[in-house]
Structures are given as structure tokens and as C-alpha cells.
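Record 3-oxoacid CoA-transferase subunit B, 216 aa.
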Amino acid sequence: MNKFTRDQMAARVASDIPEGAYVNLGIGLPTKVADHLPAEREVFLHSENGLLGMGPAPAPGDEDEDLINAGKQPVTLLTGGAYFHHGDSFAMMRGGHLDVCVLGAFQVAANGDLANWHTGAPDAIPAVGGAMDLAIGAKQVFVMMEHQTKNGDSKIVGQCTYPLTGVACVNRIYTDLAVLDVTPAGLSVREMAPGLSFEELQAVTGAPLLRPAKGE
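=>
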């Protein structure tokens, strides 16, 4: 089955981030989006540990150990970027000042419920971080994740079985197989990996899908 690479997924997410947007990139896969934002497009990247104006990852050897994102990865700071207190950062997140957040997920439900902080397994380490604040505070929530778990289970489900991060908060889902919009009618297929049929996509998805409209 053909799949989008992680860089292709990141580039696809980046293409949907508009000029002038204030954006938080979650820990893990979403951080790759920073490396694919067009240089000519002004986007303000926010990190919950107190940064605004992050740039792409530094070149090897140019890392600054004092300049990291919330996932403790080295980052760069663009001209005009700023450092500030953690409390101020969370005030930005909770106050509706972010246009978009891009989060990873363990599960996303058909109605947009998000579970991304705990699997409920006895040996799992819960790590909510700022995900709940972002899920309810950002104007749009994009989820970027693999379509299936390592065991082949769908991460897109009819109803989440893991503890929720946010209720009906996800607007769009980007996976290695498809781009899906969360709509009142259900999950609408916006794009699919090259060569993948709708029937093949539905077979590996744990919730009903709506076919793409003709011409899309």
C-alpha cells in the first residue's frame, strides 16, 4: 500500500497554514512541519515552553543547547523572535491567540474527539503537557499521525477508547494514507495517497468515511 512519507505529510500540513498565522507545533511528528513552511510565507511558530518566532531545525553543528522547543529538540529563532515566561505562553494558548495547533494523536474519533496523552495501559506514562490547553484554545486543530498503530489497528475510530484530551476539537486529520476533514456529516476524504482506492482506505479506517466530492 502506497503511503505518504513523513516529510510529505509535513509538507501537506504546511501548505494549509495561511500567511500570518500563529501556530503551535506539538511534540514529535508535528515538529517536522517547521522545516516545510515556504520561506516567503510569514508564519509565527509558538512553543509552549516560551518561544514565539521559531524557525526550522538548525544545521548539524549549529545547535544551541539553550534554544529548544517543548520536545527538547534544538530549534532556531527568527529575527524578531521572543522568549517569555511559561505562564505567559499558556495564557496565549488558553486565550484563543493561536490560529492553528498541529498535534499528534493515539486516537481521533469520527466527531473530532482527540485522545493523545495516555493510552490507559498500566505501564504507560501519562504526559498531557499543554495538549488540553491547545485543543480547546487554538482556533483550528490539525492532527498529524500514522493511520494505523504498529499492530495494524486504526487510529481513526468511531469512538475513542483512550482518555480524552479534548471533545469534538479536531478540524482536519493528516495521516500517511489520507487527509480527512471532520464535518457534521462525518469524516470527509479530502485526499488519498497515490494509487490508494477509497475502498482500501475505508478497510483500514475504524470509522465510516465520506467519499470525496467530484472534482476534488
